[in-house]
Amino acid sequence: MENIKVLFLSDHHYDSKILLESIRKAHRDYSILEVYDPITFSNIIVNGTADLIVILQDLPGKKGLDIMQNLRDESITVPFILIAENCENGIIRRFVDLGGLELISLNESRKSMTQKFMLTKLRLLKKQINDTEEYHHRVSSRYDALTGLPNRNELLHCLHGHGTKSLLLLDILHFGMLNNSYGLEAGDYILTNTSMILRQIVPAIIKVFRLDSDEFAILLDSPESNEATTLANNITKIFNTAKIVYKTIELRVAFTIGIAHGSGEDLIRHANIAIRRAREIGGNRYEFCSSSTQLEDQQKKNIKWASIIHRAIDNDEIVPFFQPIYNNRSGMIEKYECLARMLTEGKIITPEYFIGPARKAGLLQYLTKKMMEKSCEAMKGLPYEFSVNISEVDLRDHFLIKLVKKNLKRFNIEPSRLILEISDRLEITHCYEEIMQLKELKDMGVKIAFDDFGTGCSNYTRLMDLKADFIKIDGSFIKYLDTNENSYKISHAISTFGKSMNTQIIAEFVHSEEVFEKVRELNINYSQGYYFGHPDQHLPG
Fold it and tell me: What are phi and psi of 335, to 5 degrees?
């Protein structure tokens, strides 16, 4: 294609003229026809006299994407560049769906005089147009416009064949956060570079797909599980060290991966079950769907539990049970932890049965609200401090400060009596807004405890930033304190660190005289466990 016929649907505006002239000056082998009337434009396209369309999104009385939609509906697949004033999400999605080649911001062109950027894009476009076979693949409904990879439609087509296959679904970890932090342009840059790295890693005989905004897929004709897991391990290993440099920013990509074996479209469903399971355990890992029936049964169980939890909330069946916290120096019970229980159909149900399903069903905040209200009500007029567990969901949804203020005022409780326990297993190091909420609560006089300390993220820096009032050493160390040397060493290290920060230490799972003796030997401030009392629905006095 020596002379590229370009059809430019314009609006007479000055910006369009500048853009058009820059193309003409730099590319004399572009034969450009500028038109201003959508009807004339459509007639030229139907007659097949254009190799490339350049079209403005904001045309008088008509949107550029609506015009392109009409052409696609008529099976006209001429490649196009869209020039838009605002490249918002809705425009980007439609642009990709219609198989556009390049999306250019008119605002960006004004600000930085991006003639070079524009011309670079057109050179790339010229290469795509000259390669007719490649072009037809890219604009077809089976290929992704951004990365050039086959898309979900092509994957479904490939799954219609016979034989057992292996499918890997790869979900980019924290992609939404990257997009929000650095913008859509950075997001596209990450996706295109990720696709290139994947194509280098994966053997040529294996197909790589882009399914959704941050999800890729890899299809193997082999049903052997070791081939799929070997590939997943290789991908994880390479991406753990690979750097994607966007402008001056070094970014790293990690995946949550679900693997399944089988045939037909059920393979996607089973791989999705596996990837959901991997997300629940944690990112940057893979999970294998070894038994789809078992996983589907678990999903049905989660749905059943969600219904039970909804009913328990409506029927006021979420109640606090109180476990004493013993002051090792004074020999007195000075605090209680308020532990959630569900009283339904005459049974006492502990959190290990309903917290997980509540998280999946988006009901955690309702449990927190019930527990905060009922714990404050039970502690009204009593001399004890008391702790209520909170989750990352409570911080993320920004209702906690209002909830605490409301209940402290309603039940006339001094803020210094309330302790909020947040699990050390929660990754809060990067969440500025969540940290600011905790600091505001501390400024009110509310105390903060790090629960399960030593088993999760162990955010020592965050502990110092927050000046947490308490560290609760996880029970997995305390319960073996008298028999396991490593448990003793870890508990000693945490206790020493806490004291250096003027933070008081609580030992959980103190269940025997022997363990309690070791706790006192370590000079730990408080003890909690069955040795001092089981959780009970009633408080003394």
Answer: -140, 165
Measured CA to CA, the distance from residue 320 to residue 331 in angstroms comes to 25
Specify which residues 341 forms β-bridges with: 319
Contact in structure between 360 and 307 (CB atoms under 8 Å): no
- Residue 27's pLDDT band (cuts 50, 70, 90): low
**Cα distances (Å, whole numbers) of residue 101 to 71, 98, 441:** 15, 9, 51
CA distance 119 to 20: 11
Q: Quote the pLDDT of residue 426.
A: 52
Give alpha helix (H) positions in 324-386.
351-360, 364-379
Looking at the DSSP assignment, which residues form a beta bridge with residue 171? Answer: 215, 256
- Report how far apart, in Å, the C-alpha atoms of 513 and of each of 44, 269, 324, 472, 534 are: 91, 52, 16, 19, 15
Give the confidence band of 117 by pLDDT, cuts at 50, 70, 90: very low
Tell me how far the alpha carbon of residue 429 is from its chain's centroid: 15
Give the C-alpha separation, 170 to 482, whole Å.
45
Residues in the chain: 541
Q: Which residue has the tokens 């490939």?
A: 158
pTM, two decimal places: 0.52
Counting Cβ atoms within 10 Å, is residue 144 exposed (0-12), middle (13-18) or buried (19+)?
buried
Query: What integer is the mean pLDDT of 365-384?
Result: 96
As to burial, measured by CB atoms within 10 angstroms (0-12 exposed, 13-18 middle, 19+ buried), residue 343 is: middle
d(CA 82, CA 99): 11
% residues pLDDT > 90 (the chain): 30
